[in-house]
Amino acid sequence: MKDSIQTVSAGADHKLSEQDLAEAKAARYQAGKSNSVGRYIWPVCALALLLAVNLLLDASFFSISYQDGRFYGSLIDILNRSAPVALLAIGMSLVIATGGIDLSVGAVMAIVGAVCANLLITDISVFAVIIIGLSTGILAGVINGALVSYLSIQPIVATLLLMVAGRGVAQLINQGQIVTFQNDTFSAIGVGNWLGLPMPVWLVIATLLFCQLLVRRTALGLFIEAVGCNASASRYMGINDRHVKLFAYAMAGLCAAMAGMIATADIQGSDANNAGLWLELDAILAVVIGGAALTGGRFSLALSIIGALIIQTLATTIIVSGLPAKFNLLIKAIVILVVLLLQSEKFRNQCKQLLRISARGDV
Amino acid sequence: MQPVLELKHISKRYPGVKALENVDFRIFAGEVHALLGENGAGKSTLVKVMTGAESKTAGEIIIDNVAHEFATPIAAQKMGISTVYQEVNLLPNLSVAHNLFLGHEPKRYGLIDHKAMTTQAEQLLSRFKLDIDVNADLAKYSVAVQQLVAIARGVAMSAQVLVLDEPTASLDAEEVQTLFAVMEQLRSQGVAIVFITHFLDQVYQISDRITVLRNGKQVGEYLTAELPQTKLVEAMLGKELQQLTARRSNPDDKHMAGDDENAVTFSNVSAKGSIQEFDLEVPKGQAIGLAGLLGSGRTEVCNALFGIDTLSSGSISLGGKVLQLSQPSDAIHAGIALCPEDRKTDGIIAPLSIRENIILALQAKLGWWRYLSKTKQQTLADFYIDKLQIATPDADKPIGQLSGGNQQKVILARWLAVEPTLLALDEPTRGIDIGAHAEILALIKSLCDEGMSLLVTSSELEELVAFANKVVVLRDRKKVTELKGQQLTSQHVMQAIAEG
User: Fold this and answer.
1) pTM of the model
2) What is an example of a Pfam family matching this protein (chain A) (predicted)?
C-alpha cells in the first residue's frame, strides 16, 4: 500500500483521453434509448403474434363496426374485457416494483363491490358512493402497506391475510346474499360508453395517464425502483422506504376499487363469492409478462397493460379457435411460458448457442 | 517437520478485484496458527480456498506432499479439513444432537441410532462444559451456545485440520476459556488449528504461529513468542510509515483560521451497543480521521452521526445547534452525508444507472414532488463523471457493472451533489484497486481544500495520516486519544491502537 500516495500522479494514466470521452458522451444517449426500446420488443411481438393468429382463424377479427353511437368488434371486446385486470396490473406494477406483492386485490374488488351495492340501495348519491368505494380500496391498501412496512410482515403473508379475510368481509356486508341494485348512473361505469368506446376502457386510459404522470413526472417512480432494488441503500440516501411502500399498496387498493366497481356495475349486483375471484393472479401474470422482476426494481406501467391485453387476447383466441373449453387453462399456461422464455435474455442466448452448434454440425 | 497442510502461491481473482495474490500458508500438526489481518485483507477468501468453498485462480494446495484440488467443501472435508464459519451455519429447527451429527449420524441397521446419538452428543458437549438437553431444538439456545455447538460439530468431524473463523466473537470470557481448553486438548492430540480472530489478546494467549495478510498479500509468518504486539499491529496495518508520513503536505497549518468555528460537535455521546461517552469536534474545513481496529467503534461513530443508531445519551450539534437525528434524512437535511462502509448493501443500487445513482440523494432531499428533469439529471451526471473521472462509456450504464473504485466515485458524486457541510466517509478506499485508490485519496484532499469538513474512517493508517488534520483513536468503542501536529505519525497512531 506504500505506493498509494505516490500513484496520485500515475492516476492520470487511468483517465480516458478527451477523444474517448467525446465518443463516450455520444454513446451515452444512444445506449439509453436502445435499452428502453429493447424492453418493449418481446411483449409487443407476443401481442402482435397472438392477434395475427386470430386473424388467421377468423378473417373478420380486425373489423370494427359503428352502430348506435358505439364501436363493436373483437378488438373492442378484448380492450373492454381486459379492463379489470389492466387496472389491477397498474397497481400491482407499483407493488411488485417495491419488491412486494399484493394477493388481496381480488378480495378488495369484492369488498368494494359489496360496499357500493349496499349503498346504492339506500338514498345516498352515486357520487358519494363512488367516493366511499374508492376510499374503501385505499384503506385496504393502506392496511396492507402498514403490515408490510411498519410491522415488517412478508408481503405475501400480509396480503394473504386480506385475500382470505376480504372475501369474508364482503360476505358479511352482503349478509351472505347477492345484493342487486337498479342505478343507471352507476351501471354506466361497467356498461356505458363514451365517444364510442366502453367506459371501462376510458377508465384504464385515464388511470394509466394519471399514474404515469404521478410516477414519472415526479420522483416517485425512481424512489419506488430504488427501494425495490435496494431498500437499505435507499434508506442511507434519505428515502423513506416505508412511505414509498405504503404509497404503492395504497395505489394497488385504489386500482382494485375501480376494478371492483366495473365488475359490480357490469352485473348490477355484488357477488361476494365470485367478484374478482383469482384476478390477483392474472394481474401478477400481466406484470410479469410485461417484463418486471418479482424481486423488485424496474417497472413499466405500459408494459403491464400490454401484459393484461396478452392475457385477454389469449382467452379470446382460445374461444375463437373453437377448441374444447377444457383445453383453455392448459393452453394459457403454455403460451405464457413461451412468452416469458422469449423475454429471458439468458434463454435467448442459449437458443442462439444451440443454433450455432447445430449449424456447425451441418458443415 | 512436514506441514500437514500447505498452500503455495495462492491467488484468487474476482472480476475486477484481486482478493489474494501469491499467498503462502502452512500449518503443522499440533499447533494453533492465527490468521490475522484487517477486514478485506483476504482472510476469509484464503479460508474459502483452503476449505473448497471457492476455487483458487492459481497456486497449489499440498497435503502430505500431494497436490490436491478441492472442488467442493465436501472434498476438503474428506481430506480432513473441517471448518466452523463465522456465522452459525446450523439448522435451528433441528435438535442439538441432529445438528452435531448431521450427515454422519451413528447408524444401526442402516437407520439413525437415536440413543447412541444422544449419548455421543452429550459426551461431546461435556468437553465444552455444556450441560444442555441435546434433544431440544437448537433455536432454543443462545447464540453463544449455538456457536459452541457449531465448534463442537467441527471438532467431532475434525481429523487433521480444524479451521475456526472468528469463533469467539459471540462468546463471553468464561466461554472463551472453555473453548481454549478444548483447543489445547486438540492441539496435544496433534490437530492443526487455524484460528481467525480480531482479538489480539486471544492470539497471544492461544496461538503458536501467526500469518498476517494485508490487501490480499502475505505480510509474513511469525512465531507468536517472537512478535511483540506493536509489531503485529504494524504488520496488520502497514509498514514503512515514517517515509510516507514525511510526504504529506503540512496539514497542521492549513485551515487554522477555521479552528474556532466548530462545524460538528459530539458531546458525551453514547448509544446502546455502540460508542460510549464519545466527544469529538470536527472544525469547519478540516479532515478528521478515525482510527482503530475492526469493532473499535469507528463505524458506530458514523452511524450515530447519520441517525442510524439512536443516541441513549449526549448530543450531536452543528454550529452550536443540537441536532435531532432519528433517521438518515434528518442528517441529510442538517447537511451531513455518509458514504457507508458496505458499498454493496448500503451504497450502490446495482440495477439503476449511474445517473440515477448520482442524483438519488439530492432528489430524496428535494422530496418526491420537486422532480429533477432528465436534462438536469444528465447535466449533473455528466459533470461528476468528468470531474471524478468515472470510467464509463455512458451515464445510463447500471452502476453494478462498474469496478469497485468507479462505484465508490459514483457514491462520492452522489453526496457531493447534495453539497453537505460535513461528509463522513466510512472506509472510502476498501476493496478498490490501487489506481482508483490514489484518485479517491486525491479527491478527498481537494474536497478538504475546498472547505468541506470530512470525517474519514480508514484501517489504512498511512492514508489517514497523509490527509487528516487530526486523528482520533478508538478502542473498545471508546476514544483513546487524539493525535495532531507533531504527534500525528502512523507510529503514534499504531501505538495508541495497540496499547490504548
Assistant:
1) 0.73
2) BPD_transp_2
